[in-house]
Amino acid sequence: AQTVTQSQPEMSVQEAETVTLSCTYDTSESNYYLFWYKQPPSRQMILVIRQEAYKQQNATENRFSVNFQKAAKSFSLKISDSQLGDTAMYFCAFMRRSEKLVFGKGTKLTVNP
Amino acid sequence: EAQVTQNPRYLITVTGKKLTVTCSQNMNHEYMSWYRQDPGLGLRQIYYSMNVEVTDKGDVPEGYKVSRKEKRNFPLILESPSPNQTSLYFCASSPDGHVQLFFGSGTQLSVL
C-alpha cells in the first residue's frame, strides 16, 4: 500500500521568509501524481500544486514550488516570501492513476508577522 | 460557478439516529469520493465511485453507506451513527480520478 509521510507536524516562519515542507512517499509504481493541498482555518481544501511523476521539471505556482526527487521518493514544498495568509495545514498527497488519493497527516504552518 | 456542495456544514446528532450527508457537483465529473479528517490522521477515504456504475470501499468504510444513482449526487449515509464517527467529512470529485480533486466545504459531524 502506498504511504505518505510528513515528518514535520508543525512549523513556523517569519513573514517574507522562505519555508520548506517535507514529504516522502512509498510506492513501487513509476507513474503517479503528487499534490500539495492547503487547508486554512476555513477548512476548505485548496490545491496548491500538482506534479506528474513522469515529468522531470519541478512544478511551480507563483510563490509555491516543489523539489521532486523521484529516486528518493521525496516531494517537498517551498513557499517563498511567506504571507500571513499562508498560515494553514498543508497536506501532501499521492495518487496512482484512477485510484484513491492517499494523504499524509499534515504539517501545520504558522506565518508570524 | 463550478463547485461541490455538501450539506449540512454542521450536524450534531445522537447515537443510532440515521443521517445522510448530501453531496452534489455541477461539473459533470465521473469520479466522486468521501473522506473523513481526524486530528493527527490526515484524510482517509471512506468510499469512492468511478462512475454511476462503480462504487467501492476506501480505507475506512465500516459504518457508512453511499449511493450513486445519478452522476451529480453522492450522498453519505450513516445508518446507526456512533461517537467514533465524530469527524470532519469531505466530499470530492474529479473528471476521471487522477487529476486534481475538487473538494466540498466539509461537514463537521458530532455524534453524542
Give structural notes.
- The complex is a heterodimer of chains A (113) and B (112).
- In chain A, strands 2, 5, 6, 10, 11 and 12 form a six-stranded mixed beta sheet that branches.
- Chain A is globular, with a radius of gyration of 13 Å.
- Chain A has strands at 3-5, 10-14, 19-21, 24-26, 33-39, 46-52, 60-61, 64-69, 74-79, 88-95, 101-103, 107-112.
- Chain A starts with a strand and ends with a strand.
- Chain A is mostly beta strands and 113 residues long.
- Chain A is 0% helix and 52% strand.
- In chain A, strand 5 and strand 6 form a beta hairpin.
- By secondary structure, chain B is an all-beta fold.
- Chain B contains no helices and eleven strands.
- Chain B has strands at 4-7, 10-13, 19-25, 31-38, 42-51, 54-57, 65-66, 76-78, 87-94, 102-103, 107-111.
- In chain B, the strands form two sheets. In chain B, strands 2, 4, 5, 6, 9, 10 and 11 form a seven-stranded mixed beta sheet that branches. Chain B has a four-stranded antiparallel beta sheet with strand order 1-3-8-7, with no helix packed on it.
- Classes of the chains: A mainly beta (113), B mainly beta (112).
- The A-B interface holds A 33, 35, 43-45, 47, 50, 91, 95-106 and B 33, 35, 40-45, 48, 50, 58-59, 88, 90, 92, 96-101, 103, 105-106, 108.
Helices and strands, with pairings:
The complex is a heterodimer of chains A (113) and B (112).
Chain A: E1 3-5, E2 10-14, E3 19-21, E4 24-26, E5 33-39, E6 46-52, E7 60-61, E8 64-69, E9 74-79, E10 88-95, E11 101-103, E12 107-112
Parallel strand pairs in A: 2-12
Antiparallel strand pairs in A: 1-4, 3-9, 5-6, 5-10, 7-8, 8-9, 10-11, 10-12
Chain B: E1 4-7, E2 10-13, E3 19-25, E4 31-38, E5 42-51, E6 54-57, E7 65-66, E8 76-78, E9 87-94, E10 102-103, E11 107-111
Parallel strand pairs in B: 2-11
Antiparallel strand pairs in B: 1-3, 3-8, 4-5, 4-9, 5-6, 7-8, 9-10, 9-11
What oligomeric assembly is this protein in? Answer: heterodimer
* Structural class designation of chain B: mainly beta
Look at the helices and sheets of chain A and give the structural class. mainly beta
Distance, first to last CA of chain A: 41 Å
